[in-house]
Amino acid sequence: MGYLGSIIDYGVIGCLLLMSLIALSIAIERYLAYGRIEVKKFQDRRTLEFELTRRLHLIATIGSNAPYIGLLGTVLGIMSTFYTMGSEGFLDTGKIMIGLALALKATAAGLLVAIPSIVFYNLLLRKVKGIVLRWETGHGR
Asked: Which end of the chain has the smaller Cβ count within 10 Å, N or C?
C-alpha cells in the first residue's frame, strides 16, 4: 500500500499542478486576445461571442473539478493511513496525525487550483460582457 502515497503525491498533486498551468495559460491567452480584439470587424453578435468565449469553459471546468480531485487525493491518503494502522497492528497517534495531515494536502492543493480558476473565469467573463456591450453600442443595438 506504500505505492498509494506515491500516487497521491505524484498523481493527484501532479494532475492539479497541470490543471493550474492549463487554467493560467488559457486565462493569460484570453486576456491578451481581448486586448487585441477589433470589435468593428464583427458583423454578427454570435460570432463575436463565440470568438470571445473560446476556451473559457475549460477554466470553469478546472475550477469546478479541482476540489473533487483534491478530495480524491485526501480519501486515498486516509485509506493509506488506515491501511498502515491495520497492518502495523498498533496505534501510534503521532503517525496517524501525520498521515491524516499529509492526506489533507491534496484537498488544499485542489482548493488552491479551484479558487484562482473561478476568479479568472469570472473576470474574463466580465470582460467579455463589456466587449459585447461595446459592440452593441457601436452597432446601434
From this structure: C
